[in-house]
Amino acid sequence: MIKVADLKKSYQRLEVLKGISFDVKKGSVFGFIGKNGAGKTTTMNILTGLLRFESGQILINGMDFLKNKIELLKSIGYLPENPVFYEYMNAYEYLNFIGEITGLKTKKLNFDILHLLKVVNLKIQAKRRISGYSRGMKQRLALAAAIIHEPDILFLDEPASALDPEGRLEMLALLEELKRRGKTIFLSTHILNDAERVCDEVCIIEEGRILLDEKLSDLYDKYIQPVFDIEFEKELTVETEILNKLSWVESIKACGKIINLSVNNIKIGRAEILKVLSGLDNYVTSFQIRKSSLEDIFINITNQGRKVK
After folding, report:
1. pLDDT at 192 exceeding the cut of 50
2. pLDDT tens figures, 211-242
3. Across-strand partners of 39?
4. Contact predicate 254/235, CB 8 Å
5. What is the rounded CA–CA span in Å between residue 204 and residue 213?
6. Of 56-70, 97-111, 114-128, 180-194, where does the model show the most confidence?
7. Are 3 and 58 in contact (CB under 8 A)?
8. Contact call for residues 120 and 107 (beta carbons, < 8 A)
9. Which of 34, 38, 216, 228 has a CA between 20 and 30 Å from the CA of residue 15?
10. Measured in whole angstroms, how far is the alpha carbon of residue 73 from the centre of its chain?
């Protein structure tokens, strides 16, 4: 569906994309994940025709993007991270406006808008001014605007990053519904729990380079590591430094009184961890072993700075 090869982009002397390559399969949810400033939004703006690039190639449905941009953009929907509205309008008026400038037929447009408002759970608030909408309602309205012309491909830039927990769940449910309808979704996010829930494949970008691009299921099989979750009685001081010196410790994530410790040898880790913890001047209040999550894998790979692809 989407093939990107050796894509490069610079802002004056700053090289933002350093020859990135990846493939997005038809009907899949492709998670494009990375820290803020990694190059996610720049890539998204290039793929939606908002930004030029220096070199490389983009193919969509086998067609060269630069040579067929006008035609290909008709099959693309885009939800930016910070959508802008005419806030004096209500949801129905706004979607009607978007439909008209998109070139949708007037007779069909009314039905489409009513259907969309139901899909994004805004039917009750359809006649309410957008200025009175919450952030979650605005995100759902922006998603409706992105799919009003029934695009095959959706580009979503951090669609749930500023939402409260309830709003995030609503947005993820909408993405799962669009996936069931066969849409191809390019999801740019730094919220790894969201990617873990809805994505078929994840691509990790760091400082303009692709570190990893794999199916989520293969990723777990390949990079899964046992993780010790340890909570201490007192705030951490020297504990992280002491544990990080152990040869069987792969990586450590520490926050407040809690340490998440990944190991490269579970047999040695099980045998040694309690001995090490008993020698620390900080009482352990909670201790458990679990399988690594996408967040654990992401931290390990970005810390290694290892270019897989």
Report:
1. yes
2. 989 888 887 777 767 789 999 999 999 999 99
3. none
4. no
5. 6
6. 56-70
7. yes
8. no
9. 216
10. 22
Among 217, 160, 198, smallest CA distance to 30 is for 198
How distant, in Å, are the alpha carbons of 32, 153, 191, 195, 206 from that of 253? 22, 36, 16, 20, 18
DSSP 105: -
> Given the structure tokens 């969509």, which residue do they identify?
60
Q: Which of 279, 293, 302, 80 is nearest to 212 (CA)?
A: 302
Task: Find out whether 227 and 260 touch, Cβ atoms under 8 Å.
Answer: yes
Residue 25's nearest CA partner among 178, 277, 243, 202 is: 202
Q: How far apart are CA 175 and CA 294, in angstroms?
A: 19
Pick from 266, 234, 240: which is nearest to 254 by CA?
Answer: 240
Closest CA to 157 of 73, 60, 72, 78: 78
Among residues 24, 74, 26, the alpha carbon closest in space to that of 202 is found at 24
Token pair of 215, please? 């199916």
pLDDT number for residue 309 = 40
| Buried residues in 135-168 as b, exposed as e (16+ CB within 10 A) | ebbbbbbbbbbbbbbebbbbbbbbbbbebeeebb
pTM of the model: 0.78
Going by DSSP bridges, is the β-strand pair 284-291/2-11 parallel, antiparallel, or unpaired?
A: unpaired
Q: What are phi and psi of 212, to 5 degrees?
A: -165, 145
Q: Which residues contact 94 (CB under 8 A, 6 or more apart)?
A: 85, 86, 130, 141, 145
SS3 276: helix
* Separation in Å, CA 152 to CA 25, 63, 66, 180, 194: 12, 14, 18, 13, 22
Contact 243, 284 (CB under 8 A): no
CA angle 80, 130, 95 (to 5 degrees): 65
